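Re-run with default settings, no changes from the original entry. Doing this only to confirm the output is reproducible before filing.
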Amino acid sequence: MARDFALTTKNESETIDLGLKIASSLKSGDVIALYGDLGSGKTRLAKGICLGLDVKQMVNSPTFIIVNEYNSAKFHNIYHFDLYRLKSEDEILAMGFEDYMKNRGIVLIEWPEHAERLLPEGTIKIHISHSVENENERWIRVEGIAL
């Protein structure tokens, strides 16, 4: 598949399946930025990616704790950020964000708009939106990875 592509998933299961496929193309140090409104499917896609990376822990949105850390056999460190509640780069930097970026793990970021200037070159950007007509349908555009 092309390095940049777009597709539609018809239900939650297909969104998770896409995450599994994305996971198979990841390498140590990859940063994945997940863009989309509330309820667009960012966490579902993150769950699929984590399943594809053999994460055994429960994967859920780290909205109130900012970052969840997972372990897997493929990548020792997987960091799942939710920057929704952080409103400034200073807040993001104060939590050690740059250290996570340098740790060579896999980094998943929900609400990356809050840290746009802090994202490393080569960040994989995934834009998700949901259909008004079908609440389960997602339009997904992926930039920076080939499947």
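Strands lie at 5-9, 31-35, 67-70, 78-82, 106-110, 124-130, 138-143. The radius of gyration is 14 Å.
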